[in-house]
């Protein structure tokens, strides 16, 4: 279990880091009237009646004297998008509060905004905790939002997703099932493709026509000689007659190029409107799919798929038409 | 921010629940020699030198007397798959340790196995914490594993994923890009499909042939009259001649059915081997894709895609061939 290479103190620190926590910024005001703030993940709620919370601070911290003397402090539980703020109050910045909107609490302590939760506290105990001091505060006021929390675990930031049921058992070697990425991707992809196909059928757009419009939506003004191979990468073979048909329908404009034999292709307003209608149908299907997840889970899913999806440099974003 | 409908104590509890935590089980042995254990999320690491941790327990808890008298206790940081254990030690079970393998620590305190981390402690302080008591222990021994942590937030269990960069800005209305589910799904799906296409090409399997083999892989022995429409759902039109070709190649066996005009189709050993080779290529591509993520992130991705993928009841698991 424990890494035998690590020094005992490093190994202990790693073991302590196995306990995941939120991240807080604790603030107060020094006797000299200076705003003080430290990132801390040693927060813990303690008591409901009376309402009490605790956190601990290294005796060696430059903020120690200020907190030891302060009669009030505030704890700000950070939201998932506040990792930058966490870093700022963990580092050695000269003025951590620079540019931050603050309110003022008891005895002028600085209060930060837009956090997941905030507790204004009166210091009631300072307990010995080895190389740290444990500060216990009575909660005199608090706020909460529904923001997803920033997490800290193993020395890194993280996000939270809800616990789910155990995945399906492994399949037989000749089948793919609910435990396979291919199966899961194809399920969701199929729903999006069905929405796209329905919208295209209503607009009388064939696969090659849609491939050309989508390509021009990303890179308007491409010469015909480039449109044909790029659009054909999406599966359906695209020919000159497809482009001519789109021009005849007024969805694409072919402009002669001064120094080239081929015209450049542009989306017309009608072409753009047609494309927008298909994309809107796909976006609606996306919203329907993602609506099956909690908002923060949907965000995590997009993040993870983004980490999976490698971009290539051919200037043609979608790997397949949806 | 705070919900005005909630009672003040409920609102405070909700605000405290905004701070995400890991989950621990704290164990000790009562003076009478009874094993005691409680789920707690009020754990916090305190000091490295000397090594100290804390947790707090309600004075009203039935375990309070035992912990107040105990000279030793152990804290077990739970792994993501230990939510059942957490529930057991949070509830009113008569014997929470029933059926659990335990080791024994100082003075016979029970130690649980397979946790994310474990701290054996000597009680050094018991501090007042309102309706709770804060127990501070000096760490006398510890273990750690690389297991992903179980999380608790807002009264629910959760899992952790690593913090990632902010997603791409929204696209123009006529394009789909890296912020869109359709784009992201199509990227990854395309990689899997390419692996599948390559394997099928090597085995000289057309799309219709592969569709038939895959269908039989899931539901062997289907009558021909059912195979044709089901296999055709996957995109490529499947005809009787495709099935005949597969039979001729020895990949499929057609058995006459006593009371039906149509034969039933079975995978032969050669057919199963062929199918396994394609599936193995897809699985390898899946492993390559998922290998771009940390192991726990890959697990979360599969969970979230599973929540997205609605099953239908047509007995035909894959929505599209990979």
TrEMBL record, chains A, B:
GO terms for molecular function: FMN binding; monooxygenase activity; riboflavin reductase (NADPH) activity. Residues 16-159 form the Flavin reductase like domain. Transmembrane segments: none annotated. Signal peptide: none annotated. Keywords: Monooxygenase, Oxidoreductase. The keyword Oxidoreductase applies. The keyword Oxidoreductase applies. It holds the Pfam family Flavin_Reduct. InterPro entries: Flavin_Rdtase-like_dom (IPR002563), NADH-dep_flavin_reductase (IPR050268), Split_barrel_FMN-bd (IPR012349), WH-like_DNA-bd_sf (IPR036388), WH_DNA-bd_sf (IPR036390). It comes from the Bacteria. SMART domains: Flavin_Reduct (SM00903). Belongs to the non-flavoprotein flavin reductase family. This is 3-hydroxy-9,10-secoandrosta-1,3,5(10)-triene-9,17-dione monooxygenase reductase component. It comes from Salipiger marinus.
């Amino acid at each position: 279990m424990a890494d035998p290479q690590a020094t005992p103190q490093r190994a202990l620190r790693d073991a302590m880091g196995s306990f995941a926590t939120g991240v807080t910024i604790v603030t107060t005001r020094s006797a000299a009237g200076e705003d003080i703030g430290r990132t801390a993940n040693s927060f813990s709620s303690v008591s409901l009646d009376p309402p009490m919370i605790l956190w601990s601070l290294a005796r060696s911290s430059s903020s120690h004297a200020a907190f030891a003397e302060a009669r009030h402090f505030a704890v700000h539980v950070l939201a998932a998008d506040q990792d930058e703020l966490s870093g700022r109050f963990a580092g050695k910045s000269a003025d951590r509060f620079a540019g931050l909107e603050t309110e003022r609490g008891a005895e002028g302590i600085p209060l930060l905004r837009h956090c997941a939760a905030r507790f204004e506290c009166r210091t009631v105990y300072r307990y010995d905790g080895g190389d740290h001091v444990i500060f216990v505060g009575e909660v005199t006021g608090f706020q909460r939002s529904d923001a997803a929390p920033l997490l800290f675990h193993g020395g890194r930031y993280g996000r939270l997703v809800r616990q789910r049921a155990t995945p399906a058992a492994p399949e037989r070697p000749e089948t793919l099932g609910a435990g396979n990425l291919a199966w899961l991707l194809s399920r969701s992809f199929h729903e999006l493709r069905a929405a796209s196909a329905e919208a295209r059928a209503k607009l009388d757009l064939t696969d090659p026509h849609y491939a050309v419009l989508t390509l021009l939506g990303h890179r308007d003004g491409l010469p015909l000689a480039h449109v044909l191979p790029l659009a054909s990468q999406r599966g359906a073979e695209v020919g000159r007659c497809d482009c001519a048909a789109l021009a005849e329908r007024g969805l694409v404009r072919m402009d002669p190029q001064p120094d080239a034999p081929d015209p450049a292709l542009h989306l017309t307003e009608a072409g753009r409107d047609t494309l927008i209608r298909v994309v809107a149908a796909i976006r609606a299907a996306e919203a329907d799919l993602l609506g099956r997840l909690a908002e923060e889970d949907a965000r995590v899913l997009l993040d993870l798929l983004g980490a999976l999806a490698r971009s290539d440099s051919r200037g043609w974003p979608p790997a397949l038409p949806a």
